[in-house]
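hey can u check if this looks right to u? its 371 residues, i copy pasted from the old doc so theres a chance i mangled smth
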Amino acid sequence: MGQHITNPIWVGMDVHQDSITAAILYGDDAEPRVERLPGDLNAVRRMFRRLSERGNPRSCYEASGAGYVLQRALAHDGFHCEVIAPSLVPKKPGDRRKTDRLDAIHLANHYRAGNLVPVAVPSEDHEAVRQLVRARLAVQSHVVRLKHRIVRVLATHGHRFTGGKSNWTAKHRVWLKKLRRELDGPLQTVLAFHMEHLEYLEAQRNALEAEIDRYARQEPWRDQVEALCCFRGIKTLTAMTILTELGDIRRFKTAPGLMAYAGLVPSERSSGQVFRRGSITKSGSQELRRVLVEASWHYRKKATSDLILQRRRMGQNPQVVAIAIKAQHRLQKTYWKIASRKHPCTAVTAVARELCGFLWSALWAQVQEEV
């Protein structure tokens, strides 16, 4: 009886808000048994308790808007459950059928065969801080779009700022306030509405940034944030974005693995003696890739002494500081070497890829120091 209980039972689940379709494979069975359950965690728990009487259930479902709630609930009950990367699930090019039942069967078969790649499941606290950082990004995107709208609305009526080279400086805002007083009629109402909305969004953004900064000064974020701030182009907000998107750095055993996760490695379609390399894959976290590229633009400048950067490095792990200084010199040379013969954006992307390697080394050094 004990030997029978240890037999694996493979469960592939297609999870939706209102329903969960489970395909169950007992051992080496060829045909799965399919069950359709309501979108209720208690119903899934009852099914797994029933399956555990016949063997050892091992389950999976694709990462989606359902999040990690189901995985955490099953893990809390002692059941094995993994969340699968949807983009890495094998698919037949000629298969044009897609239903909940077929998706669940597909997952169960590939999970038993070991063809699926699980994603890292963050803790609830980690995921909450990640959502906080992403909320700030969402508000910032609204701010940028509203600024563009204000400038274009005024430009269509012949009001253009000529008091400086760029918009949204202190002089530009003074000009907007003056224009708001001088205008009348519907255009004055539109400008007043947009400016009040902009002030509200900027206040929200500042409040979120203050909250992010508060968490960055607490454990378990503080030490790693301070380590990343040793690098040029990285301050608290960028460091928190990197850390919340990466999770535990120990899951990346090599620097190229982190580069691939950020989607900064070139795509390739080679066969035989023909080698074809294209643009970067852009896989993984878009937010992580964005902040790495933004930080990489700072390495266009000459690697000189920076008082503010030196202050951020004071009292930090000497190994991390040495890595940051090496990155500052190497990446500046890398940028100008590539920019001399290619587009600056190509050079910055290459710098971002190498910056990934330096950040990987610094975070590993910080982890080893804590141990």
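The two ends are 43 Å apart (CA to CA).
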